[in-house]
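During the no-cost extension, the postdoctoral fellow (Dr. R.K.) reprocessed legacy sequence entries with the updated structure-token encoder. One reprocessed record is reproduced below for audit purposes.
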Amino acid sequence: MKGPWRIPIILGIIIVYALCWRAVGIAPSKFFEPQAAQRAREIFTAFVTPEILIPEVSRQAVEVPFRVPCPPGAKSTPEVSGLSPQIVMPVCASEGEIIKVEGRGFHPRSDVILRWRFAPSSQLPLGGELVAARVKANEDGSFEAQIEVRPLLAQEGGASLQAEAQWRTGRRVVSPALVKTVELMVQTIFLALMATTFATVIAIPISFLAARNIMAKGPVGTAIYYAVRWVLDLVRSIEPIVVAAIFATWVGFGPFAGVLALTVATIVSLGKLFSEVIETIDPGPVEAITATGANLLQVIRYAVVPQIVLPFLAFIIYHWDINIRISTVVGFVGGGGIGYQLKLWIDQTDYHKAGTAVWAIVAVVSVMDYVSARLREAIK
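Re-encoded structure tokens follow.
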């Protein structure tokens, strides 16, 4: 860079990056804070040691309702829940309060997990759980814990507090998290397959309308071509995760919302790719068929289709591979599949279970990437 503008341009670039640095709050020192570093080590260790085979665990659980805030006239004095095992705790409290929870009659020296269990609601359509505390029972099976009434409890009007005692029996069994992960990975693969299939059926006719060499041969055809292109570009600008959030609100959380979101995203992507394939075909057969007096449909059938079948198949297989990856992200906003369960495990700080899901995603994506590449090579 030469001339008198060199220094002002360099200064301008430095100022822009300085403003960006400040705007996004970059703080490298946070990496070295003792608590942050310790937390990062714990999370990383949990992720690289997924739950596969775990010691067989016996469980003992009791659950009691809890309201936030207290209804008018209600007393927040501790009450005893049912028969053994028992929880002694207030029946209600206000947001931000610290409540005392006592347990009796649990298995001696067992690990006790206290978790809030939420019923389905507008904010939590599938319900949910939130770990409140982890304690260890004494020799007599009793425990005591202090729990904060979190804002989510106030938003939901309360929840049930479950105390689950766990202790090992000595045997090793397949982790329930692994079983659930396998089930949801299969669901994710099928979710991506259905979305790719639906999108292909819709994208193929759209691609012909978006191909210049097919449509731009008159004022009406040219207008259709530009209109379809504009719609494809408009929809492509919307991220699949946003579309998934919309469908999750519309049809409810679950894999159906994920299928719809991926279908929309795949239609516009395949529509654009297919149209570009059509625009790059050899014009010779098209001109020859047209010279015989064939109409537009006949030209497409005998001159265009034979040239685009293999490229179309390659793009379809490639997009199935892509959709398996995207479906994980879509699941985070309610699109079903392994992504939603991964989010729940992370929110519950069950990082070993989350690690199981992450490694399963890595394995499936790697296999699908290899299979997809081989299939694309085979059909060339």
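The beta strands are 53-67, 78-80, 86-90, 98-104, 111-118, 128-136, 143-148, 158-174. The radius of gyration is 29 Å. The remaining legacy entries will be reprocessed before the final report is submitted.
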